[in-house]
Amino acid sequence: MLLITDTSVCLSNLQIIVESESASTIAIAKETITRLANYRRITLDEFVNAHDPSVIGFLGLIREKLEYQLSLARKIQLVDAIQELSIQDNNSTDWLSPEYVEILRDQENIR
Fold first, then answer.
1. pTM score of the predicted model
2. Is there a single domain that holds both residue 42 and residue 80?
3. CB contact set of 37 (below 8 Å; sequence gap of 6+)
4. Would residue 89 count as lying in a domain?
5. pLDDT tens-digit series, residues 28-44
6. N or C: which terminus of the chain has fewer CB atoms within 10 Å of its end residue's CB?
7. 56 assigned to some structural domain
């Protein structure tokens, strides 16, 4: 997939400013500049200025993944407790909610 973003690079006396809509573009530029500076044994001072709309946009892109990870962590915390309760009730799951029955059934995949 090809992603086209606006990127600008400003060079001035002892300063390079890289601006982009893409964090990947900035990371690649930073890595390249750092590698060249290390090769020449030059020390760099770095400054990152993230604009609020960019951060909000990025969080929007990863929101679904973060929610999934939070749900998975919650299920992991519940597995042992649900398993112990079902064992104490002679492995009966009739009284468990459908969500807890699913967690108990899929416990190997959850862990």
1. 0.52
2. no
3. 43, 44
4. yes
5. 999 999 999 999 999 98
6. N
7. no
